[in-house]
Design brief:
binds S-adenosylmethionine; alpha/beta
Length: 186
């Protein structure tokens, strides 16, 4: 309950970038984490983790040798993630997902297996949404997956244009009900 109230407070302060008033439900988190095949997930990016609702499910599912690079722009959420997650697999990056390329190059990472995103692209300038999504496509290995949730199916055609495919799941048990879009890099 306290986590929900803290998330609500932070979201109201930054509604344009959080795009939601509630953290993801366990039903949504489980559905997203369940899309990961732990045997083929060694490098995972999470974009826009908020206070870490999905992050925890990802860590529960991932192999001990996996690494998760987490990109978050919100100061309060980054502080919260720093205190909550004491796991050697996680690297917190206080920067916009626009800059994933620079951070991956700095670490000598050549491609990634999965990208999980909760960034509210519908609320962002179109060019920013396009730049981030295109960077995701470029950095995924062939067969790697981009998994994004939204509260409407508005952008499904956009993802189909970028990736050439997009499967959609509907998760009613979330506030608001959510759509999970999964795209595979060809
Ligand atoms: C809808 S919230 C999702 C929070 C969390 N993943 C969840 O499911 O409960 C969106 C998050 O994306 C973050 N965000 C927005 N734009 C971003 C960007 N350009 N780079 C990284 N994070 C961003 C916001 O600060 C916020 O934490």
């Amino acid at each position: 309950m306290i986590q929900r109230i803290n998330f609500l407070r932070e979201s109201i302060r930054n509604l344009k970038t959080t795009g939601s008033v509630a953290r993801s439900s366990r039903f949504l988190c489980r559905r997203i984490a369940g899309k990961i095949d732990p045997e083929h997930a060694r490098v995972v990016l999470e974009l826009g983790p908020g206070d870490g609702a999905i992050t925890r499910h990802l860590l529960d599912r991932l192999h001990p040798d996996a690494q998760v690079l987490v990109f978050e722009i919100n100061d309060a959420f980054i502080d919260k993630l720093r205190t909550e997650f004491d796991d050697p697999r996680i690297t917190l990056i206080h920067d916009s997902a626009e800059n994933i390329g620079r951070h991956l190059e700095e670490r000598g990472i050549q491609s990634v297996d999965y990208i999980i995103s909760g960034i509210p692209f519908v609320m962002l300038p179109e060019s920013l949404a396009e730049n981030i999504t295109e960077a995701c496509r470029q950095w995924l290995r062939p067969g790697g997956k981009f998994i994004q949730f939204h509260y409407s199916p508005l952008l499904v055609q956009f993802y189909r244009r970028v990736f050439g495919n997009a499967a959609v799941d509907f998760i009613p048990l979330n506030i608001p009900p959510a759509f999970v879009v999964s795209c595979e890099k060809q």
